[in-house]
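Aim 2, interim progress. The first record below pairs a target sequence with its structure tokens.
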Amino acid sequence: MSNFTKTKTTTTTTTTTVRAGARARRGSGSITRVVVLGAIAIAFISPIIFMIVTSLKTRADATAIPPSWIPNPISLQAFASILAPGTATPVLQWFANSMVAAALNATLVVITASLAAYPLARMQFRGKNFVFVIIVATLLVPPVILVIPNYLIVSELGWLNSLVAIIIPTAASAFGVFFMRQFFVGLPIELEEAARLDGANRFVIFMQVVLPLAKPALATLALLAFLGNWNDFLWPVYVLFSPEVQTLPAGLSTLQSANAVRYDLLMAGAVVASVPVLALFIFLQRFIIEGVSRSGVKG
């Protein structure tokens, strides 16, 4: 065998060995990633599973020590108690109130944020940058500081103990303006210029060109606004007094007292409260992923 043949054979063997080692390292790395991601997923899912399990327990089983992961026996009494009509805790009414308030608030946030963000992204006027800086600066103000001023305003307007009090005050979102402005800046301006050459005015361009491209961002903002209003606890406690106008997070707090906590009822209420949120995320996740991956530009 010639030296050339021996060298070629050695090189081929070495290359095969290197490739095999690389595949082994990739396989080991993949297994490690799966294990790590699986552990993270279990850490995040475990509270949800425990919530569902506890909601299916009896009152005695829910307070047993140590707690168990398997209800024995499986009981729907907690759901029957909180969903029964005519009770002192009208969970279905709270659920309806939360749905109405969160849906209307998310709608108003999307409208006001998109209308305010487009001029900041595309139009030129004196003081534009200053206005944007002021809007962003308000994000640094802790929301709890605004509770008393907002309460006084709502009281003067006669909105106390009504759903209007939890819909209107947060309808203008500084984060929404910032979020939509950043998205509008990333859109190709050539599309708007082409529409302007065709004779379209600013409003037509905004409604027929910009907003259709911004559907992923609008869906993401709507989801965030819905979640923020749906999960809000402190503000409804201050402005809603009657049981029939309470929202779900504030109403569920009445299921516990200083001396006794009905964990089965609380977890059943939490399951009811989590259903719309999970359903909304599943419905909108396509738009959210599209907004992240394609930056709002459709081919």
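The second target in this work package is listed in the same format:
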Amino acid sequence: MEFEEELNATTFQSYLYLVKVGKPIGPRDLMRGASLSSPSVAYRNLQKLIDLGLVVKDQYGNYVVKEKKNMKGYIWFGKTLIPSFIAFGLIFIGILIGEIAILVPHLLVASPIQESFWLLTLLTVVCAAIFIVQGLRFKKKT
């Protein structure tokens, strides 16, 4: 069983906060930083993360991320975890910028543009929009 299946929403948010902070913290710090309801919820989340091997407790009683783990459907971007859909959407936006850079000179000198290039640009816009919207919906669920 993958550890992603063991994480509920608050435990997942706790893990993301620990990664973002990048230093040892206690349950009260986690409670405030991850917007949890009480220190006991933070402590339960920390215990679950320890059981999953994602977090360790140091000699001072603080908790720190053992290592950043890859998670299904997500990509680490520094200390931020983003849905893969958003990463793919950003790739399509990059392609769209390239297409616009090709289109602008043609439009400025009024040279003809093939219909297939317009279709390709429209397809790129649609793909970027679909990936970004799906990524935002995926992020909202977690």
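The CA atoms of residues 11 and 59 lie 23 Å apart. This observation will shape the mutagenesis plan for the next reporting period.
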